[in-house]
Specification:
Helix 8 runs antiparallel to helix 9 and helix 16 runs antiparallel to helix 17. Helices cover 47% and strands 14% of the residues. Strands 6-3-2-7-10 form a 5-stranded parallel β-sheet. A 4-stranded mixed β-sheet has the order 1-5-4-12, with helices on both faces. The relative contact order is 0.10. It is an alpha/beta fold and 462 residues long. The protein folds into 2 domains: 270 residues, Rossmann fold (3-Layer(aba) Sandwich), CATH 3.40.50.720; 180 residues, N-(1-d-carboxylethyl)-l-norvaline Dehydrogenase, domain 2 (Orthogonal Bundle), CATH 1.10.1040. The structure holds D-mannonic acid. D-mannonic acid (CS2) binds next to helix 11 and helix 15.
Length: 462
Amino acid sequence: MSTEIVTPGFDTAALKPRILHLGFGAFARAHPMVYLSEGLAKAGGDWGVVVARLNSGRAEIDALDAAGHRYHVAEADGEGATLREIGVVTGTLHPARDGIGAIPDLIATEAMSVILLTVTEKGYCARSGGLDRGHAGIIADLAAPQTPGTAIGVIAEGLARRRAAGLGGLTVLSCDNQPENGHLTRAVILDFAEARDPALAAWIAETCTFPCSMVDRIVPAMTGDSHALLESLLGRPDPNGIVCEPFRQWVIEDSFAAGRPPFAEGGAELVADVRPFEEMKLRMLNGSHTMLACRGQLAGHVTVDGCMGDAALRAKARRLMLEEQAPTLSVPQSVDLDAYAEALLTRFANPRLRHRLDQIASDSSQKMPQRLFAPALVHLETGGDWPVTAESIAAWIRLLAEGRGSADPRKEELDAAVRDTDPVAAVLALPELVPAGLAGHPGFLPGIRTAFAALPDTVAAG
Ligand code: CS2
């Protein structure tokens, strides 16, 4: 296996803290930071990043400091690997170490221009497209806005301090897998600000932008095996390093309030409307991921590449993508969805990733709506067939019923629902889980019940 090594290629001493990354986990290390690194190498500039975690992750943040903020990204597949040294990070913050006010204070510095967000679906504290006012974290943050605990409260407090300091607005760029993620971010932050102080909400609405973006790169959580692979490529361990696939894509709505980092120079596509791209990716890639995560675990598989070696599951993934997801999309005719599906199947088969199904199955209650419920509704309304979609949802309920469900913010409710005599109906009746149009459709529940009854006996993981 050949390894290419890429060093930063720009003046790291010129970097200033102009970007804040909230939720600096595996994906952040391997996706936006790589675009920025490539962009700085091509175009130069002073766009440095301060990275932060809000709750867990203190040890990771400390480890990054200990390594002088440098780490490696190994982009690997069966053919070879590219090893990039990332040098865009200029500092780190963690509330448990630096105090709750440190992140809002940074947001209120003149140089700060962009807040990047990877806080996962649940980090938005959203409900029905706006802020979930009943969310415990939001209730706490609204009661004590100067000492926020949620990402939404932290950003709002930072913007309040920015406004008080007489500074201008900035860009809040969501990089999470949600439909219209920028619009959602704007909605929850404005709702929160409105509840605090309508004048703050008006200032944010006028001065800040919230571009939508579609992000794509498969970056599994690091395991002992991936650390060993990284060490074999680098010749020494890198506790902060990441292994991911070579593929990456980032489509960003071109709407920046206070200057634009060189993301486009690093390979991102800047467009006027992200929706067609995000719908295609969320349904065909993420939808199939969730199908494999649930159905694949029932069949005894542990990783995505393991599923790709199973002819029946590979065929199901292709069928889901091309016969059940593709027909629900409104992409330009020039987009070749057959080629996109084949490329996804090849990416899923990457033998270096060992992407765990139970990791993908985590937070499924937050993922089902955009990945599988939305296309199911399209089929029910247009008379289309959706057997693999139904089977995927049924497989999720079956995993829960067998006590094999992954972590989920709604785990307690889900576990209680599957103890019901009719687990399918009980899960699908949970409030705010299934969109009203779908829940009320006469074909939905019977479709999932039929699929549930048809699931084969499960196989223990092996
Ligand atoms: C995955 C994603 O864990 C999951 O839910 O479907 O993280 C997926 O790997 C990325 O979105 C790929 O871009």
